[in-house]
Write a sequence for this structure.
């Protein structure tokens, strides 16, 4: 099977189901940003040695692929795409609670940096926020299942807490914003 089809050479792409859209359509932007996020999650996962975190990030990647499939499907009720449910959010919340219990109380805004792995995690977090914004924008024109928006919101929170935890585990400096410029 060839990877290239030449069907997108004029700036359009197909959704699952065959509908053609311009590559600049908000739906394409939404699932493209989720795909970009998935790549950054893979990068973060590759930098981490803790097996529990690696497994959770692999689960996140699976869920992001499912979310991308939903967004690339003409209707949100396709029988071929698994659902994202509130149950998918719970592991993120549990992991955040466990990490938070080990971290000092947050008293300042945190600047990305301090260690390469921490910076990668912050990049993933900001891409996640952008993906969430794109999906919310899509939701004004199309019906996006609410758990998808909730999942992306919670995932960005998880990535922030994970960045803080990695800072501690890597004995890196937590860079704070002083507001003085």
């Amino acid at each position: 099977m060839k990877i290239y089809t030449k069907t997108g050479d004029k700036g359009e792409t197909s959704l699952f189901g065959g509908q053609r859209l311009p590559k600049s359509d908000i739906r394409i932007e939404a699932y493209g940003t989720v795909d970009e996020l998935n790549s950054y999650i893979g990068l973060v996962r590759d930098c981490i040695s803790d097996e529990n975190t690696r497994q959770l990030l692999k689960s996140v990647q699976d869920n992001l692929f499912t979310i991308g499939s939903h967004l690339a499907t003409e209707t949100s009720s396709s029988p071929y795409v698994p659902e994202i449910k509130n149950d998918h959010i719970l592991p993120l919340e549990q992991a955040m609670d466990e990490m938070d219990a080990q971290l000092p109380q947050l008293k300042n805004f945190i600047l990305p940096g301090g260690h390469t792995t921490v910076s990668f995690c912050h990049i993933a977090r900001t891409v996640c926020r952008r993906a969430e914004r794109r999906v919310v924008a899509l939701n004004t024109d199309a019906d996006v299942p609410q758990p998808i928006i909730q999942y992306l919101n919670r995932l960005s929170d998880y990535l922030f807490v994970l960045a803080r935890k990695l800072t501690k585990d890597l004995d890196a400096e937590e860079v704070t914003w002083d507001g003085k410029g």
In short: The radius of gyration is 18 Å. The longest helix spans residues 116-139. The mean pLDDT is 90. Strands lie at 12-14, 20-22.
